[in-house]
Design brief:
The complex is a heterodimer of chains A (259) and B (279). Chain A has 259 residues and is an alpha/beta fold. Chain A contains six helices and 17 strands. In chain A, the strands form four sheets. Chain A has a seven-stranded mixed sheet with strand order 10-9-8-7-11-12-15, with helices on both faces. In chain A, strands 1-2-5-4-3-6 form a six-stranded antiparallel barrel. In chain A, helix 4 packs parallel to helix 5. Chain A is globular. Chain B is of the alpha/beta class and 279 residues long. Chain B has one domain: TIM Barrel. Helices cover 38% and strands 17% of the residues of chain B. A seven-stranded parallel sheet of chain B has the order 1-4-5-6-7-12-13. A four-stranded antiparallel sheet of chain B has the order 2-3-11-8, with no helix packed on it. Classes of the chains: A alpha/beta (259), B alpha/beta (279). At the A-B interface, strand 4, strand 6, strand 13 and strand 14 of A face helix 1 and strand 2 of B.
Amino acid sequence: MNCPKIVKIIKIKAEAPEIKTFTFQYPGKMIAGQFFMIWIPGVDEIPMGVSYIDRDVKGITFRRVGDATKALYNLKQGDKIGVRGPYGNGFQIKGKRILFVGGGTGIAMLAPAVEKAMSKNIPSDVILGVKNKDELFFEKRLKKCGSKVHVSTDDGSKGYNGFATDLAMALIITGKFTSVLTCGPEIMMKKLLDLSDNISFQASLERYMKCGIGICGQCCVGKGLRVCKDGPVFDGKTLKKVEEFGVYKRDASGRKIRF
Amino acid sequence: MDEDAGSMERIFKSGAGAIVTKSIGLKPRDGYPNPTVVELEYGILNAMGLPNPGIKEFKDEIKHLKKSNVPVIGSIFGSNTDEFVELGKKMQSYGTDALELNMSCPHAKGYGLEIGSDPTLVREITSKVKESTKIPVFVKISPNLTNIVEIAKSAEKGNADAIVAINTVKAMKIDLELKMPVLSNKIGGYSGKAIKPIGVRCVYDISKNVNIPVIGVGGITTGEDALEYIMAGASAVQIGSGVYYRGVDIFKKVCNEMESWMKNHGYNNLPELIGVSHI
């Protein structure tokens, strides 16, 4: 039933300034790249990619950015939230060598996908692209699972000094990678799509969502592709036909907002 | 899935004969905060709060859509006669093939049902929109009324070209753990399978009492559901929540199921079945 299930926050972990992980009891199978609708009672309900997948326990990792995440950020262990899902399709983890590119909090939903690739013995490189070193999280976690981690910071405070896309280009031209999987700012993902001309590509899109179950039309892109139901992960072939990819999204009223 | 051109085009390609747009008002509206939609055991509960980009911005979507010749019924909502007239004229100028006046949204203050429950206002708004436009005008009415037939007759007296019945049924879901309503607006409208018998009854009563066509809507998920509405007196049907139950290609499925029922029962002309249940 697609009605929020009320769960208690069992653990809270501060990942970085402004970034927290909540875990909660939520049994069931789930694929990396799928998402929940998280209800902060009395405030809002927002889509959030899963960042930890265990048989019984699931986790979300988020940055304090808007009213809903501010309210969520202030919750304590034992507080109740509503959860419905999992929704969407998730990443397809296949290929000979995968390049993962996470930008900002996009790293959160990409992490379980990296772990999945490693557990399937697919060697993987991960680029963690952030503005500065204070925004970095999951570096240890991703090293621990065996992936090769590269850090890029816009201000050069750690790792590669520059954009994640520049670092990605240097890696892609080596010809080692058979696919690119990404989640992050859409302009970054659009650049990556352009760079991934000859290899397979998957990107997870973010749009304002309401129903989460494919009926309200709020999150549609291209020719009626519902990010909540047909996505949120789309392949490169599909995205090349989505004219607004990397160009605009829609606000709650449906008006176009350019990136 | 009726707010942007791409979605409406996809629905059309999935077998729908025409598309009714999301209800559009004069100004952009965000609608209510989430949760705005939840699924319940037998239906779907929503209180979107009439989110829409506003009539000015909606022009692009219609223009884009009309390039592929999709028949479009522009749904509009206003808080008074002048607003409905202005919206109707704009929709017509964008190229919509008909108008649907939303006088039945059950959860938006000052709009929808609050207007659609007053017979005088329904007649006045309908006739003024008719006078100022040339395309067919449909009036969508609510089941949350004891005088639904009177409202339908008022729309007919205002020269409506058809009645659309029904909109969602007022409803609520309370979460036991939190002891509070789940929808941010608390009250919402119930759609989907549970409301089909309510819709069928309304269409039956309305079509017996008016001499204009009725478009049936509410809980249709199969060809047999559609035929039930047709037999109750509907000349056409609309599907919304059915997209959740059977996917975007529900339109093609329903058409095929209607055809096969008719074939098995020796009918080859749908109009023969309109209102056959009336004695």
